[in-house]
Backbone:
């Protein structure tokens, strides 16, 4: 795949200040998002907005892994790998929540990270099997790493969402407020979309990582709005309804800013933008 | 605890087998140039299995028989996939104006009807012909059975709540269906397709992943205090 960001970046968007290069590299992105996400997951007493920042980082990491894996062509469409990441994420989050009580100090749950590690191992195994010549033979470079990162990012994202909605990571609280209310289905689908949609929408010969990531942040903003409404409806936040409202406002601002940025970048980088007006009649 | 792992592995293997039996058309089918339903393996399988879970969950409220719950899931998934295939045929036949024809075999293995003369040149078949329909119904049945089996296991042996059991079953099911989808690579028609011979590779992969997932789920049940 001939993605040459080094050349393209120097053109239009750099001048107009529309470039978006927070952690510039894929490996750095993984490390930064993984560490920040893990720290925010452990400390469940934080306000929802900070958890929202962690969620955006983690989803961006997942989106990066999807992009990295599927730019070689999976043969089954980009959505499959995003759904795989979320599926692993739910299993890993269940594992993490089950062990959350062990080693708990007040509102700090370090044991949930066990679920993240276990899912990393399962992702590594499935990636190795899919890539191995003896079994499925996908022959995608670095598929093992991509699947491992997907499992970890998916787990962190689901754990963060549970933590935002319930305000803690207690197994029974999460089961009552997330699983039994059916919110988990919404989380499943929204997580899938935050991970798979940006690359699915932007892929093509002229795909550029920064532009794709703007789309990713935009969808994560929408996820934050949804989670804010869920939190408001359940009324579980330790800081009262203000916490949920700030989450909604934060998500809406992120969505608006990055939607504008994304559309602007698309228009700048397109060969020509022609307004066609309303639907025309055939002449 | 061993029972949970065994049933999860069986469910995962059935999901993997079912994904190979479904008529997956992908993007070419959306243009009417390939046999099958016009979307990827995962979407078809997820739709069928979720419908199966709904029927299984409602049957589960008034029976304790694992066979009955699993069979009801299978029936739900079969009905879903049959409706989808039937509607696809109506759209292809009366909307796009193509006859349902298989692109991979010259003679239908079930009805012995010739296929090749009716196929539009340069395409890979159209719609959902009889052999593909039979294969797809079988796939829906097996997939729904596997999904409902996992749901029943997580609900009644691991003692999860209904919501947790459903989402856990769906997640493990999806992981297995996607490994199968990677093995298929694009489109497949059913058991008569040459790609069906690649099934053992996917089954090995699916076995490994469902075994790990089963262990994780049973550990969750033990450590979470539900078992």
Residues:
């Amino acid at each position: 795949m001939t993605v040459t960001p080094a050349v393209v970046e120097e053109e239009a968007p750099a001048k107009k200040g529309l470039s978006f290069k927070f952690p510039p590299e894929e490996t750095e992105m993984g490390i930064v998002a993984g560490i920040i996400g893990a720290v925010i997951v452990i400390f469940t007493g934080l306000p929802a907005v900070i958890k929202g920042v962690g969620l955006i980082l983690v989803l961006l990491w997942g989106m990066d892994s999807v992009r990295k894996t599927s730019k070689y062509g999976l043969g089954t469409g980009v959505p499959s790998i995003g759904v795989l990441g979320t599926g692993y994420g739910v299993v890993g989050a269940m594992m993490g929540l089950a062990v959350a009580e062990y080693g708990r100090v007040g509102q700090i749950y370090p044991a949930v990270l066990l679920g993240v590690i276990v899912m990393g191992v399962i992702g590594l195994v499935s990636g190795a099997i899919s890539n191995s010549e003896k079994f499925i033979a996908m022959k995608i470079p670095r598929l093992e790493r991509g699947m491992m990162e997907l499992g970890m990012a998916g787990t962190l994202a689901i754990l963060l969402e549970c933590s935002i909605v319930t305000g803690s990571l207690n197994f029974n609280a999460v089961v009552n407020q997330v699983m039994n209310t059916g919110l988990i289905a919404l989380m499943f689908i929204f997580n899938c979309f935050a991970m798979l949609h940006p690359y699915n929408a932007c892929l093509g010969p002229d795909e550029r990582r920064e532009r794709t990531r703007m789309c990713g942040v935009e969808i994560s903003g929408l996820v934050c709005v949804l989670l804010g409404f869920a939190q408001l409806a359940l009324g579980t936040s330790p800081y009262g309804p203000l916490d949920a409202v700030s989450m909604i406002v934060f998500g809406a601002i992120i969505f608006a800013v990055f939607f504008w940025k994304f559309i602007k970048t698309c228009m700048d980088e397109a060969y020509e933008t022609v307004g066609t007006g309303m639907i025309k009649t055939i002449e | 605890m061993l029972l949970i792992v065994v049933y999860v592995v069986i469910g995962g293997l059935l999901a993997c087998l079912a994904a190979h039996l479904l008529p997956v058309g992908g993007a070419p089918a959306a243009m009417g140039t390939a046999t099958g339903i016009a979307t990827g393996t995962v979407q078809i399988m997820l739709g069928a299995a979720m419908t199966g879970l709904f029927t299984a969950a409602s049957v589960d409220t008034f029976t304790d028989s694992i066979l009955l719950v699993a069979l009801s899931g299978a029936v739900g998934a079969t009905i879903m996939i049959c409706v989808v295939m039937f509607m696809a045929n109506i759209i292809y036949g009366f909307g796009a104006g193509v006859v349902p024809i298989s692109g991979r075999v010259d003679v239908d293995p079930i009805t012995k009807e010739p296929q090749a003369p009716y196929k539009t040149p340069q395409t890979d078949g159209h719609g959902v012909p009889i052999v593909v329909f039979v294969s797809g119904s079988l796939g829906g049945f097996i997939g729904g059975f596997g999904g409902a089996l996992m749901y029943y296991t997580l609900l009644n042996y691991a003692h999860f709540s209904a919501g947790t059991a459903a989402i856990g079953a769906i997640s493990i099911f999806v992981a297995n269906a996607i490994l199968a989808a990677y093995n298929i690579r694009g489109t497949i028609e059913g058991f008569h397709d040459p790609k069906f011979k690649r099934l053992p590779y996917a089954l090995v992969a699916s076995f490994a992943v469902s075994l790990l997932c089963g262990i994780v789920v049973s550990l969750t049940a033990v450590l979470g205090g539900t078992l």
